[in-house]
């Protein structure tokens, strides 16, 4: 894949008035905002994980649930279970995959100094962070459903602004000699995720507003909207996940991605199709109102592109020589879960399992990105042994959780995932909280060819991506 010279990285911001203005106006730089998104994802993941463990292990007393739920303990249990899923997708997976890694590495990979609108970037994080706080308050029946709806509407505002900023940055801020076709798959995936968000977030906001204006059982309407959003949600999680894994596969196979433009085409189909086929569910009685043809169309716009991407990864592995590494282990786990999700989709009543497999695949891709880029962000490589313990615990918890949704086995899966979160917290503390270290600029070797590997490790947190 063609690359851009180091002089373009140093001068990209000066090459256009937009870049210069962005560098002057930036309140903290794209790397600061990316770090904030990743921090939010860690906090939300810990909260969501604790909720899951507490629910599965029965650690929340009946009296407490009844008090929170206005006397309806069972209803409160269901509400927390639903909000747990929302917490993991809206405030953990998407902020990490899109807001965190997107903010951190899209400018580095395109030779830009910053995002197109730095102040908007910070405001969008504040909106998403504020919506997370409101979502926690919305767990109680005393404050819900008004606060739950307000949280999601504020999330929509933040993510829509972030998506517009991402599209503007990719189109206008990249180095002068980088054509669209030269961009890494990761950048394409981030841009297509942003374009899909521009399509679906206003529709989601409209459906939420309608749920309030129509009156009646707002909680039931909110749950209908969230279930309907599961369709585009899968594409939104898969697009940045595929971008990260493609980057990892290229690096540790030692050869450029095979069928690269076909992968970009597949991601485009997933983005446009995933954003177009779901609105029927929101405004025509919910997910249960879809006919067989509509459900088949939803599956095809996800499964066919995923199959093309998997073929490209396999071809790349066969063309090169796979190096064992921690990021590659997480990437392989993501690929296995995508295959498992495709198989589940063909089974009767398997859509719930497909969604669960997609969420777990996004989790594996997120950790692949963390272990791949953490040295570039902190100047320290993650401890290898602890990283593999984290991987084994997460893989075991994922397998058990996919096998059972209730009972003792489900509790065991939740406990394994809880243990993996604790180990990851230790990895983060050992890697990111001991001061900024200094390692080689390209600590993964010759397989890492994209622009961020020409910059020091860690990349300076000062404004501008200079060596």
Automatic annotation (TrEMBL):
Residues 30-404 form the Cytochrome oxidase subunit I profile domain. The gene is ctaDII. It comes from the Bacteria. This is Cytochrome c oxidase subunit 1-beta. It holds the Pfam family COX1. Keywords: Electron transport, Membrane, Oxidoreductase, Respiratory chain, Transmembrane, Transmembrane helix, Transport. One of its GO terms (cellular component) is membrane. One of its GO terms (molecular function) is oxidoreductase activity. Its EC number is 1.9.3.1.
């Amino acid at each position: 894949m063609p690359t851009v010279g180091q002089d373009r990285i140093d001068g990209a911001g000066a090459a256009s008035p937009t870049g210069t203005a962005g560098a002057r106006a930036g309140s903290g730089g794209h790397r600061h905002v990316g770090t904030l998104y990743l921090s939010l994802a860690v906090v939300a993941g810990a909260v969501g994980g604790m909720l899951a463990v507490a629910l599965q292990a029965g650690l929340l007393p009946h009296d407490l649930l009844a008090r929170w739920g206005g006397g309806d303990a069972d209803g409160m249990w269901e509400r927390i279970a639903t909000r747990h899923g929302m917490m993991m997708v809206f405030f953990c997976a998407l902020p990490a995959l899109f807001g965190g890694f997107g903010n951190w590495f899209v400018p580095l990979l395109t030779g830009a100094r910053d995002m197109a609108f730095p102040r908007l970037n910070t405001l969008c994080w504040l909106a998403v962070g504020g919506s997370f706080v409101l979502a926690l308050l919305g767990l109680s029946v005393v404050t819900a459903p008004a606060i739950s709806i307000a949280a999601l509407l504020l999330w929509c505002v933040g993510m829509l602004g972030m998506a517009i900023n991402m599209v503007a940055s990719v189109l206008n801020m990249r180095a002068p000699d980088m054509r669209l076709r030269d961009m890494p798959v990761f950048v394409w995936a981030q841009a297509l995720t942003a374009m899909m968000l521009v399509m679906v977030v206003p529709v989601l906001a409209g459906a939420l507003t309608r749920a309030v204006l129509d009156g009646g059982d707002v909680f039931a309407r909110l749950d209908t909207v969230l279930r309907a959003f599961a369709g585009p949600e899968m594409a939104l999680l898969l697009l940045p996940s595929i971008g990260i894994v493609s980057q990892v596969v290229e690096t540790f196979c030692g050869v450029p991605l095979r069928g690269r433009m076909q992968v970009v085409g597949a991601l485009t189909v997933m983005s446009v199709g995933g954003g177009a086929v779901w609105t029927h569910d929101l405004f025509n009685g919910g997910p249960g109102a879809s006919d067989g043809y509509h459900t088949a169309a939803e599956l095809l716009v996800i499964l066919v592109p995923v199959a093309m991407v998997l073929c490209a990864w396999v071809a790349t592995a066969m063309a090169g020589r796979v190096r064992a590494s921690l990021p590659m282990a997480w990437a392989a786990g993501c690929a296995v879960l995508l295959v498992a999700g495709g198989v589940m989709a063909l089974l009767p009543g398997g859509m719930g399992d497909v969604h669960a497999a997609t969420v777990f695949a996004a989790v594996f891709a997120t950790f692949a990105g963390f272990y791949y880029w953490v040295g570039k962000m902190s100047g320290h490589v993650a401890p290898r042994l602890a990283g593999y313990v984290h991987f084994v615990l997460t893989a075991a918890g994922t397998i058990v959780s996919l096998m059972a949704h209730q009972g003792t086995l489900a509790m065991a899966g939740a406990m394994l995932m809880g243990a993996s979160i604790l180990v990851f917290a230790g990895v983060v503390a050992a890697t990111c909280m001991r001061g900024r270290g200094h390692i080689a600029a390209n600590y993964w070797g010759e397989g890492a060819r994209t622009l961020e590997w020409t910059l020091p490790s860690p990349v300076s947190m000062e404004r501008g991506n200079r060596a």
